Amino acid sequence: MSKNLADILVGRPFLDDLPESAKRSHYIISNSNVPVQNLEEIATYIWNHIHKAKIVSIFTGFYCKSGYETDGPVGALILAEFFLQTKIPVQICCEKELLKTMKSIASELSLSEFIKFTPFENFSANKNSMIFTIERPGENSKGICHTMDGYKISHSILPIESEIKKNPPNAWIAIGDGGNELGTGYYRNSIEKVIPNGKHCICGCKGGITAYNKADRCILSTTSNFGTISLSLELAKQNNINWNVPENKVTQIIRSLNKYGIKDGVTGEEGTVDGISIELRKKMYDLLNRLF
Ligand SMILES: [Zn+2]
């Protein structure tokens, strides 16, 4: 991967300013004992598999202390818009309350009316499907999903993981930032080493927060939103698609999510994602956009 892109993806140009919560992908990637997966290769892999997919399914939603967080839904909506721009049908799937919010936001912001919002009971994976899981809770080796601070998630979680196991899709891409997200198990050894609670959680299951299962491809980034948007830009570049994601679009979606009570998963505040200030977010997206 171009060194610049790899560095920007995990926030290396901003390490002095990033909060600890947004440096996790940098720690994991820097200590990885398996070859780091490459965004350019992942984009090529997606395009090589996409013709077999009748529809792209995007799962998102991580329930934190008192509600869903802003990391995940922003990237999911933007990736959905990207696929529709290329005339590929797309559906967003998540827990009912978040699904309702995402649908309302898409309509308020006049995002494409062709994004489908599919309740899980109407979803089924099959060998023709392409699945993205963006900032979704992932089971550890004991089958338990955890928050970053090491507790078991008590809020109900859709059984996406068992559905994927039962009916493996044609391609499954996972996007995360801290190593407790579904599909990020490829980096398991490094996550257990460098992420607090990675090996030893607080809930007592003795499995740590590290997600066990591996997606076909895995992207780790400062935030899952940032990783997802970077992927959309790389897909566009490789396939000569006219596409850009200005930072103010990201800000607009965050504001809309806040109105529905969806907040920063780390600080619980409005306006931000994973504790990254609005000023720093602008700098990060500006740098990303200059690269593409
Ligand atoms: Zn546990």
Characterise the protein shown here:
- The protein is of the alpha/beta class and 292 residues long.
- It has a single domain (3-291), classed as TON_0340 (inorganic pyrophosphatase (n-terminal core), Alpha-Beta Complex), CATH 3.90.1640.
- Helices cover 37% and strands 9% of the residues.
- The protein is built from ten helices and six strands, in the order αααβαβαββαβαβααα.
- It has helices spanning 3-9, 24-30, 39-50, 73-85, 96-108, 160-166, 188-194, 224-238, 247-259, 278-291, and strands at residues 56-60, 90-93, 116-117, 130-134, 171-176, 217-220.
- Strands 3-2-1-4-5-6 form a six-stranded parallel sheet.
- It is globular, with a radius of gyration of 17 Å.
- It starts with a helix and ends with a helix.
- It binds zinc ion.
- Zinc ion (ZN) binds at residues 144, 146, 152, 201, 203, 205, 207.
- The site of zinc ion has 7 residues, from loops.
